[in-house]
Amino acid sequence: MSMLKTLIFSDLDGTLLDHFTYQSTAVEKTLQQLHKANIPVILNTSKTFAELEVIHHDLGLRTPFIIENGAAIYMPINTFNSQPEGTVIIGNYWVKSFSLPREYWLTLLSKNSQKFSPYYQGFSTLSDSKLCQMTGLNIDEAKRAKQRQYAEPLHWLGDNPTKEDFIAHLVSLGANAVFGGRFIHVGDYCDKGQALIWLAERYREQFPNYAISTIALGDGENDIAMLEAADMAIQIRSPVHDFPSLYRQHSSTKTQLYGPQGWAEAIQKLLTNQLIN
């Protein structure tokens, strides 16, 4: 019988971080327990590499992380015994990309979406102070949030029918539109689920005598692919929107508490039940 190794994939905003304050105090004890149990917590978020490096350090994590809604995976060098095929070395990381660069999508928007331009503001056009006002980030956090590599987040200003027309237009141009906690992310056809599957397979190669089990935690529409791909899905209650609908009917649960409190609640239940030991 194979031993079990569990991987935890987690969204950030509204999940591991509070939607309004971006605080993670409620999960600190649980993260320490997981670290002692050698259970990797892999952040899987719409945030940028610049944001994740800081958050990763602040949370005391030394694990791979996934940026910009599955656009790329950053793995600290020596995460595995050998460099995974299809990755490149950038700084101290092995990097697997699934997307065309941001410049491609900026050009596509500027050349093909003029009639919709009055209805949205892109990150590339926002000042740091404006982004602070919109998100509650401080000025340094806003600067890091704007350092996109693969996709362009848009703040929608129009009505819903126009938004649906805009989404259909983007799809016709070969772009993908993913809804995060606050913005429409325009980019390639990659998602958090695809990145989870690819990285879990690398762990299977690293630990051939273990059964690899994946748990995903998220609150938003852009987490659906990750929640569907994992062996167990935990939907985190949000103070600003309903639970997104999932196709899966098994191994899924919804928290009673919000954000990081819900995150800790769900993982503590699993630890208590020894499902991930």
What is the compact description of this entry?
The protein is α/β, with parallel strands linked by helices and about 280 residues long. About 35% of the residues lie in helices and about 25% in strands.
Sheet bearing the most strands, described? Answer: 9 strands, mixed
> What is the structural class?
alpha/beta
Over the alpha carbons, how many angstroms does the gyration radius reach? 18 Å
Helix content: 25-40%
What is the CATH architecture term of the largest domain?
3-Layer(aba) Sandwich
Q: How many discrete structural domains?
A: 2
Output the number of helix runs.
Answer: 9
Distance between the termini: 15 Å
Strand order of the largest sheet: 5-6-4-3-2-1-11-12-13
The CATH class of the largest domain is Alpha Beta
Question: Shape, please?
Answer: globular
Q: SSE string, helix = H, strand = E?
A: EHEHEEEEHEHHEHEEHEHEEH
Mean of residue pLDDT values: 93
Q: How much strand?
A: 15-25%
User: What fold name goes in the CATH topology slot of the largest domain?
Assistant: Rossmann fold
Q: Which segments are poorly predicted (pLDDT under 50) over 5 or more consecutive residues?
A: none
